[in-house]
Amino acid sequence: MSGGVQLAPSILAADFARLGEQVADAERAGVDRIHIDVMDGHFVPNLSMGAPVVNSLRRATRLPLEVHLMIENPDHFIEQFAQAGADCLIVHWEGMNDLSRTLRGIKALGRQAGVALNPATPAWALDEVLDDVDQVLVMTVNPGFSRQAFLSAMLGKIARIRRMIAQRKVACHLEVDGGIDHATAPSAVAAGADLLVAGSAIFNESDAVAAGVDRLRKATRI
After folding, report:
1. Catalytic pick among 32, 40, 134, 177
2. Which band of pLDDT confidence, cut at 50, 70 and 90, is reported for residue 1?
3. Are 62 and 35 in contact (CB under 8 A)?
4. How does pLDDT run across 102-120, given as a tens digit for each residue?
5. What is the DSSP string of 40-100?
6. Does residue 2 have a pLDDT over 50?
7. Which of 37, 40, 134, 181 is flagged as catalytic?
8. pLDDT tens, 20-50?
9. Regarding the domain with residue range 6-219, which homologous superfamily does it belong to in the CATH classification?
10. Is 177 a catalytic residue?
11. Backbone angles phi, psi at 130, to 5 degrees
């Protein structure tokens, strides 16, 4: 694990007419990876991008690409996203038939494996798989839409998972996704997060990408 808090801008909030440009701006601003939300309109009530977007971004940036699969039957698509250039594939605990098998499949493709937990899913759901993951993603909003308010009730869950990681001595990131900005980021980091997904706090119409990144960097130096 590298030191410090890492930032993963979510392109769900980007201007898709200027997606390559905005990702390049984020890379120049010093972010650590790019977060790509994939939604199928079934697991969550919205639709978003697929493997062709990952493929295009792979050619546009050297940053790691993490793909957050908010979809039913992710096993049907994991190889496709890996071939498109994803470095990390994150699946939801709530949508799996055999989570251990899926994590093994991701690792067999040479990619990092992550597990996401919805707000109503308790920390103990990770108990049997924590040793097999590179990343845990705690949703601090209900998944499916951007620009939602941060659910502060999730801070206790973040802290519990941080203790689990420490007790098990597992080398994995603890990521937080949902409502992250300069006001909420310090609480998430204080609770134990070391990787933050941020959408509109970085990609917005009123400010430059670099300014949003700088605000978050300053906010997480606690």
Report:
1. 177
2. very low
3. no
4. 999 999 999 999 999 999 9
5. BSSSSS-B---HHHHHHHHHH--S-EEEEEESS-GGGTHHHHHHHT-SEEEEEGGG-S-HH
6. no
7. 37
8. 999 999 999 999 999 999 998 888 888 888 9
9. Aldolase class I (3.20.20.70)
10. yes
11. -60, -35
Angle at 184 between CA 20 and CA 168, to 5 degrees: 90
What is the average per-residue pLDDT within 165-189? 96
The alpha helices in the chain, defined as continuous H runs, are 19-28, 51-60, 78-84, 99-108, 155-168, 185-191, 209-219
Model's pTM, two decimal places?
A: 0.95
Residue 114 neighbours by CB under 8 Å, 6+ apart: 66, 88, 89, 90, 91, 133, 134, 135, 136, 137, 173, 175
Q: What is the distance between the alpha carbons of residues 218 and 222, in angstroms, rounded to a whole number?
A: 9
Contact between residue 153 and residue 136 where contact means Cβ atoms under 8 Å apart: no
Closest CA to 140 of 191, 98, 73, 214: 191
3-state secondary structure of 36: strand
- pLDDT tens digit sequence for 63-92: 999 999 999 999 999 999 999 999 999 999
Cβ atoms of residues 71 and 42 within 8 Å? yes
**What is the rounded distance in angstroms from the CA atom of residue 89 to the CA atom of residue 83?**
12
Packed helices 51-60 and 19-28: angle between N→C axes, nearest 10 degrees: 50
Specify whether 131 is catalytic: no
